[in-house]
Amino acid sequence: MKKDNFKELTLDELAQKKVTLKEELFNLKFQYATGQLDNTMRLVQVKRDIARVLTRISENTQKANATK
Predict the structure, then answer these.
(1) What is the pTM of this model?
(2) How many domains does the chain have?
(3) Nearest in space to 3 (alpha carbons), one of 41, 42, 43, 59
(4) H or E segment at 16?
(5) 3-state helix, strand, coil in the chain (%, to 5)
(6) What is the distance between the alpha carbons of residues 11 and 37, in angstroms, rounded to a whole number?
(7) 16: domain range?
(8) What is the pLDDT along the chain (68 residues), one digit of tens a residue?
(9) Would 45 be classed as within a structural domain?
């Protein structure tokens, strides 16, 4: 997912996206360990998406705190 797609999401949506991505990462790691994972690059993509979501959450909370 592109970083621009995360800009449009609210904090609640970002939190839900983080949970979904972490579940997907767990499943991918499990598939990798059992030798069933075909596309190992997907592990890297999901990790990067998680980092993007966490960065966006941090930015949004900093903006919210700065305006108070």
Answers:
(1) 0.88
(2) 1
(3) 59
(4) helix 11-34
(5) 80, 0, 20
(6) 32
(7) 3-62
(8) 666 677 788 899 999 999 999 999 999 999 999 999 999 999 999 999 999 999 999 999 988 888 86
(9) yes
Residue with tokens 């579940």: 23
> What b/e sequence results for 5-35 when a residue is b if at least 16 CB atoms lie within 10 Å of its CB, and e otherwise?
ebeebeeeebeebbeebeebbeebeebeeee
* Long-range own/partner contacts, residues 59-68 (CB < 8 A, 24 or more apart): 60/11, 60/14, 61/11
In a domain, 68, yes or no: no
- CATH label of the domain that carries residue 39: 1.10.287
